[in-house]
Specification:
Chain A: One of its GO terms (molecular function) is ATP binding. Chain A: It comes from Shinella yambaruensis. Chain A: Belongs to the ABC transporter superfamily. Chain A: Pfam families: ABC_tran. Chain A: Keywords: ATP-binding, Nucleotide-binding. The complex is a heterodimer. Helix content of chain A is 33%, strand content 26%. By secondary structure, chain A is of the alpha/beta class. Chain A has two domains: 235 residues, P-loop containing nucleotide triphosphate hydrolases (Rossmann fold, 3-Layer(aba) Sandwich); 199 residues, Rossmann fold (3-Layer(aba) Sandwich). In chain A, helix 14 packs parallel to helix 15. The radius of gyration of chain A is 24 Å and the shape is globular. Chain B has two domains: 86 residues, no CATH class; 266 residues, ABC transporter involved in vitamin B12 uptake, BtuC (Orthogonal Bundle). The longest helix of chain B has 30 residues. Chain B is globular. The chains are: A alpha/beta, B mainly alpha. The interface between A and B is large, with 46 and 32 residues.
């Protein structure tokens, strides 16, 4: 028996020209919660994928429980006692909890005996780790927090001693996240080892025993959590000092620029996603919409920006109506002064296969200044892209580089530069810093506040409560398609959390 | 985190990989020839000699190349917009109506250089019309373009059968074809082009529509990479969600793209009708529309790739005919097998050897190694 649950020795992995992991050494002690933190693209996910057998390391060894393990595929990882809870759950949506847990471990062609056994085992696990789930519930009807529990049960059912969780709290409410942390504590108490991958410093401080920091494919430091600080970790992640708090002055709200009245939006299945929502945004203020992902924020943004047709309601832009229930034209809305930074920059805001300069004109490509006769003026387009690259410090500064080859933060800057440089009246922003590295977050936040100070009306949607609280002048909380409350940014996290969870919370309840 | 794709240098991406794929296809073709009991080397000799051995053979090869450039471009244009137009066959077939109408109307009265532009417009118009309907059905009703274009091939075949029988066939004639056109409906051969290289075109129907095909290839390049329409088409092809976000009118672009695609396919009809037969016959397309799919795949939907890919298939057609002529135990069907293997390896299994080649190329070259090191840092 070894002290260490996992030891990685000199792990090295390249994808073609990208050196994703470089000589990684890591020691994870048994029965601890070990955090792995790093910016997006630092190589955390690659490292965990190697540990779970999705990729093979080019060099280096993996030791599990002191013995060298040859993990060539996920089955080998499971056999070695490693379980993984993925960022995007690997569950069959229309199967029951029990069926999902059994999947791949049925043991025989005839299911009956296996089901009985699995049910008994599931009962035992639920008791032991306080993980209550109804085994006969269908996955798609369960909230995400519970789905995640099913993923954990799945790993435990396969007798995992080491549990890897990849960004587990991205989809959870603060309350659900707290519950998850209690489960992890319980697992630790039962002697399991937990590897927690995250980019959220607060979670690391709250729950881990030790933390390792990755930066650009390298493991730069390992610290005992108690002996480190958020500031130190942030500095290690980025490689320089970072300002975690955004500084901003008082808002000076002026005229109403965007007015939403009784907006109702249904999705393609006819489910009401936005339910009778009304609010106004004035020039010179940032209104943040807080909420757990999937509570109608995305549909709200899409309806306002003309991408998705609304069922009913009105939206006024600069006092004039947008045809949200009919054929609102995103191109026309841009001309009327509405800029939109979409939530999903990979599929919506950018065309990853385009070169940078081509993305720098997306949506504005019919501007005559990009045209020369009947043809596109490639020189003008590239010159324009170069100006934006300089102004937003986009790296590498090459307008001809394929967009997919930029980091998440730089991709987001491409979108922001495009939308902000047009001097819009209203700026609608979804998830401005999702998948963006800490260094770029600072820059993006400063830009958003600059926009406000220039007298733009800003609508901000983010699932990061910290971000909403740091930037917004007013916070609206959405739950199940409705705005369930409005608060000032100094409202406590507990209060906002309760609202986000659908509990009509008051301050007293939160304390 | 997404898995970064290894990037190969251009010569490997566009040269080495297609060559390896081709080599494997020919190797397996050789095995098939061997099984039949013939010498693969002899077959290879006849193939190459039959395609390039004499001016006349080259003329035939380029004649087929012309046809495949048109149909390849047609598939490529639609592909840039994310549309898989399988209907080149039918669109080319219907395009023939435009050519035939132009020739039948004006061949007595106008010289070829005036009939030709009319025929081009006619071919493009009818081809575009035949592609417009599936495009419209997709834009309006969401009907799957692959299904509709395939079905429209069958409809085109039946329709042409009817038209040739009832409309185009001269009274008293037994064969399903129009009358033979007069001088105004006959395109001049490219003798002068061949004679620059000291070759004679002989009986080969290598005609001026070859130059039109090259012009069309350049036009497609300009369209796709240098116009706003091309930009919008590519945006839609890569990401429909981004196109919607950008305010691009999806339905409009789909319909226009399909019409351009169908128009290019239709222009293929000029080559056999005005360039070779001087009449419109039953089934004159002879599968060229389908070969266009393979050409576009091999040429990576880029005009600069489509021209050599079309040349390759022109060579297979012409050289293949020569093999079956010289080696009686190898039937024409064998040629279809060889063509099929090329399509299989160059198209469908395009990425089969990529990982191995990537490892080899990136592993061998010390320069790229250094790049890897600095990039990862």
């Amino acid at each position: 028996m070894s002290e260490l649950a996992i030891e990685l020795q000199g792990i090295d992995k390249s994808f073609g020209l990208v050196h994703a992991n470089r000589n990684i050494n890591l020691k994870v002690r048994k029965g601890t919660i070990h955090g792995i933190i790093g910016e997006n693209g630092a190589g955390k996910s690659t490292l965990m994928s190697i540990l779970y057998g999705f990729y093979q390391a080019d060099h280096g060894d993996i030791l599990v429980d002191g013995r060298k393990a040859d993990i060539r595929d996920p089955n080998a990882a499971i056999a070695a006692g490693i379980g993984m809870v993925h960022q995007h759950f690997m569950l069959v949506e229309n199967f029951t909890v029990l069926e999902n847990i059994m999947l791949g471990a049925e043991e025989s062609q005839i299911l009956n005996a296996g089901i009985t056994k699995a049910r008994a085992e599931l009962k035992r696990l639920e008791k032991e780790y306080a993980l209550e789930v109804d085994p006969d519930a269908v996955i798609e009807e369960l909230p995400v927090g519970i789905q995640q529990r099913v993923e954990i049960l799945k790993a435990l059912y396969r007798r995992a001693d080491i549990l890897i969780l990849d960004e587990p709290t991205g989809v959870l409410t603060p309350a659900e996240a707290d519950h998850l942390f209690r489960i992890l504590e319980q697992l630790k108490a039962e002697g399991k080892t937990v590897l927690l991958i995250t980019h959220k410093l607060r979670e690391i401080m709250a729950i881990t025993d030790e933390v390792s920091v990755m930066r650009r494919g390298e493991m730069v430091a390992t610290r005992t959590t108690k002996e480190t600080s958020v500031e130190e970790l942030a500095e290690l992640m980025v490689g320089r000092r970072v300002l975690l708090r955004v500084e901003k002055g008082e808002a000076k709200p002026a005229d109403v620029k965007l007015s939403v009245k009784n907006l109702t939006v249904r999705d393609s299945r006819g489910v009401t996603m936005v339910d009778d929502v009304s609010f106004d945004i004035r020039a010179g203020e940032i209104v943040g919409i807080a909420g757990v992902a999937g509570n109608g924020q995305s549909e709200l943004l899409e309806a306002i920006s003309g991408i998705r047709r609304a069922k009913s309601g009105t939206v006024l832009l600069n006092g004039k109506p947008i045809d949200v229930t009919g054929h609102a034209d995103p191109a026309e809305l841009r001309k009327r002064g509405l800029a939109h930074v979409p939530e999903d920059r990979h599929h919506v805001g950018l065309v990853l296969k385009f070169e940078e300069s081509e993305n720098a004109i997306l949506g504005y490509h019919d501007d005559p200044k990009y045209r020369k006769g009947m043809l596109l003026d490639i020189d003008a387009i590239r010159a324009d892209a170069e100006e934006k690259i300089a102004a937003y410090d986009i790296r590498p500064p090459n307008p001809r580089l394929k967009t997919a080859n930029f980091s998440g933060g730089n991709q987001q800057k491409i979108v922001l530069a495009r939308e902000m440089e047009r001097d819009p009246d209203v700026l609608v922003i979804g998830q401005p810093t999702r998948g963006v590295d800490v260094g770029a977050i600072e820059f993006i936040h400063r830009r958003i506040i600059e926009m406000r100070d220039q007298g733009k009306a800003v609508l901000l949607v983010s699932v990061e409560l910290d971000e909403i609280r740091a930037l917004s002048d007013r916070i609206l909380v959405m739950f199940a398609g409705r705005v369930v409350g409005e608060r000032t940014p100094d409202a406590s996290e507990g209060e906002l959390g309760l609202l986000m969870a659908g509990v009509e919370g008051r301050k007293e309840a939160a304390e | 985190m997404s898995v970064p794709h290894a990037k190969l240098p251009g010569w490997a991406e566009y040269g080495l990989i297609p060559l390896v794929n081709l080599a494997v296809a020919f190797l397996i073709s050789g095995l098939v020839v061997l099984i039949v009991g013939e010498s693969p080397l002899e077959a290879a000799y006849h193939m190459i000699n039959g395609a390039f051995g004499r001016g006349e053979y080259i003329g035939f090869t380029l004649y087929y190349t012309t046809t495949f450039i048109f149909t390849g471009l047609a598939v490529a244009v639609a592909f840039h917009c994310g549309l898989f137009n399988i209907g080149g066959e039918g669109q080319a077939y219907i395009g023939g109506i435009g050519v035939a109408l132009a020739c039948l109307s004006f061949d007595h009265t106008l010289p070829w250089y005036l009939v030709f532009p009319i025929a081009i417009l006619g071919a493009a118009f009818f081809g575009a019309l035949w592609a417009l309907i599936p495009g419209w059905l997709l834009a309006r009703r969401g009907s799957h373009i692959v299904i509709t274009t395939i079905m429209f091939n069958f409809i085109a075949a039946s329709l042409m059968n009817y038209l040739l029988n009832k409309v185009f066939k001269p009274l008293g004639s037994m064969s399903l074809e129009t009358r033979t056109f007069d001088a105004g409906g006959q395109l001049p051969k490219l003798d002068w082009l061949m004679s620059i290289f000291g070759l004679s075109v002989g009986t080969a129907p290598f005609n001026i529509s070859f130059l039109l095909a090259l012009l069309a290839a350049f036009g497609v390049w300009v369209l796709i990479w240098r116009t706003r329409l091309g930009y919008e088409m590519r945006t839609m092809g890569h990401s429909p969600a981004a196109a919607r976000y950008a305010g691009i009118k999806e339905a409009k672009i789909i319909v226009i793209t399909m019409m351009i695609s169908g128009g290019l396919a239709g222009m293929m009809a000029l080559n056999p009708i005005m360039g070779e037969q001087f009449r419109m016959q039953l089934d004159f397309v002879q599968g060229a529309g389908f070969v266009g799919i393979a050409v576009a795949l091999m040429g990576r939907s880029h005009p600069a790739g489509i021209i050599p890919a079309a040349l390759l298939f022109g060579m297979l057609y012409q050289g293949g005919a020569e093999i079956s002529f010289e080696m009686p135990s190898i039937s024409r069907d064998m040629i279809v097998i060889i063509q099929g293997l090329v399509i299989l390896f160059a198209g469908a299994l395009e990425h089969m050897f990529r990982p191995a080649i990537t490892r080899l190329v990136l592993g061998l070259s010390p320069k790229t190694r250094n790049v890897a090191a600095t990039k990862g840092a």
